[in-house]
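Morning. Coffee machine broken again, so started the prediction first thing and wrote up yesterday's gels while waiting. Chain of 363 residues, entered below exactly as on the submission form.
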Amino acid sequence: MKSRIEHLYLYMEKEAIDVLLITLPKNVYYFTGFLTEPHERFMALVLIRDEDPFLFLPLLDSEKAQAVSSVTRIYSHRDSENPYEILQCYLPTSITRLGLEKSHLSAVSYEAIRATIHATETLDIEILLRDMRMTKSPDEIATIKQAIWVIEESLRRTLPKISVGSTELDIVAELEFQTKKLGAQGPSFSTIVLGGQRTGLPHGDPTKRAIQEGELLLIDAGVFVGGYVSDLTRTFAVGKINHVLTDMYDTVLRANLRAIETVRPSVPIANVDLAAREIIENKGYGEYFINRVGHGIGLEIHEYPSVHSNAQGTLQEGMVFTIEPGIYNPRLGGVRIEDDVLVTASGAEVLTTFPKELITLEC
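Came back before lunch.
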């Protein structure tokens, strides 16, 4: 974390930034090891050129930060105080360039900062932070692998408990119960469990609908472990399914495997999406592949890169992202097969290990 902060100071020197405010809680964690959700309260990692960094946060979080933060200077504010006025007391009286995470700040927070911290110019630092977080360190990869193990083992424990008549919400409850038993901090997004025709909803909400014989069951879930996420989707057959659903499944699996084969450093990001899309379109399902093929993961469930057919840039060693082609027919149902993939020096390492051949649940 020290080297990450040193990188920020080098950037500040290069861009002549006097003060830099890191306000996204996940980014504060990335640079300090302190993770919290301040909700509406103001929190920032503050860097001033030629000074040591400090954390500025709600008094409620001060003791917790002191126990874990690599940044040891910590200042706090009470709920009854104006945090921006308090922060101003610790900053230089003259600031020319102020670096901010503009996409994270609300309009109210941004205006409050501008009103109290008088800087000649504000500079958006989002691309800097995005690029730093884009490639993962060995420690980050190890933590992501642990998050993947938790969700995969939870799914293994859940499947035997599913039977005809189980509702989508029953399965969500069981799966999330298992993740907690295995040490997850919580789900990395709202768990998706859909049965039958509802599998044709890419981001459908689970309901009390009972699963039935002869249909598909789609489970898309992930967890936080050590602040990092996993993201896994598998589609199952509930008993014997018809040949149309089987063909959809086989097509998505081929698209998933083809996209993975495309992954290696310096390959255009768009090529990963296009490889999967070609398989699905050639089978006549193109109109039902309505999502991008993947997205970066790390501290957040959606990070850079966004892996779609018009994406700019190339793959780099250390990127971790999902590959999740899908076919979503609103009349018949849908299939999604999602893996978490690491770009290595020679190609791709598929971090998810849960089987991808069609599994039939004998309910």
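Residues 271 and 283 are 19 Å apart (CA to CA). Going to sketch it on the whiteboard this afternoon.
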